[in-house]
Design brief:
Length: 112
């Protein structure tokens, strides 16, 4: 258990270096998952904006400041939800899954 904690601490401090030295297929997959290169990526990027504009246009709250604050909150929640469904819509794996594979790669390497 302590070795796992040590690796997580090391990962937190050296994440950029470890990703840069990871196998090419994992680096490329990670890089590709961050790009806006599918229709699903673009669709998910505009969904929070559309939801916010629709909420603002509906005028459900009569106070302008509260209406804007509620729209911003709804936009943030919608953004989080789009990030959760992104792997299913785009067919790309999440960064968490890719980073876990990179961690597994380093855990399998012999200690020097």
């Amino acid at each position: 258990m302590e070795a796992n904690d040590n690796f997580e601490t090391y990962w937190a401090e050296h994440k950029t270096e470890l990703i840069a030295r990871a196998p090419q297929h994992l680096r490329q997959e990670r890089e590709n998952s961050l790009k806006m290169n599918t229709a699903g990526d673009w669709l998910l990027a505009i969904v929070p904006i559309i939801v916010m504009v629709a909420f603002l246009s509906a005028g459900l709250i009569h106070s302008e400041i509260l209406n804007f604050a509620a729209a911003a909150l709804i936009g943030c929640v919608t953004y989080v939800l789009t990030m959760l469904v992104k792997p299913y819509v785009t067919g790309k794996r999440s960064l968490v899954d890719i980073d876990n594979d990179i961690k597994a790669y380093y855990r399998q390497q012999p200690r020097t």
